[in-house]
Amino acid sequence: MPPTKTRALSAALELLGSGGVRSLTHARVDAHARLPKGSTSNYFRTRAALLSGAVDWLVEQELAGIDQFLQPDTIAELIDGLCAAFEFACVQNRHLHGG
């Protein structure tokens, strides 16, 4: 993924986490990511596309880290894996949720 698009998506998630859906505009994402005006709209033409892109990117980021924990052979490994996945999502990746 191009670095500009990644910066835009990261900024979009931060804005959503701190200000909700109303804070999500192309101009605010550009400003928050310190991108030139119009950069975000080059990748996401509408606000709906921007929101959809941010959600898709969030899921992609979460799954990339959580998959490693969810390959159990036993019930005990499943429990340990779920706990590790929860910790990963809520502690290590809390920045993805505006935390």
**Counting H and I runs of at least 4 residues, what is the number of helices?**
5
Identify low-pLDDT runs.
none
CATH topology: Tetracycline Repressor, domain 2
Number of strands: 0
Structural domain count: 1
CATH architecture name: Orthogonal Bundle
Work out the helicity level. 55-70%
Mean pLDDT: 87
Radius of gyration: 16 Å
By secondary-structure content and strand pairing, the structural class works out as: mainly alpha
Structural write-up:
This protein is mostly helical and 99 residues long. The protein has one domain (3-94): Orthogonal Bundle (Tetracycline Repressor, domain 2), CATH 1.10.357. The protein is 68% helix and 0% strand. The protein contains five helices and no strands. It has helices at residues 3-19, 26-32, 39-43, 47-66, 75-92. The protein is elongated and about 50 Å long. It starts with a helix and ends in a 7-residue tail after the last helix.
Task: Outline the secondary-structure elements.
Blueprint: H1 3-19, H2 26-32, H3 39-43, H4 47-66, H5 75-92
Question: Key terms for this structure?
Answer:
99 residues; Tetracycline Repressor, domain 2
Concise synopsis of the structure shown:
Helices cover 68% and strands 0% of the residues.
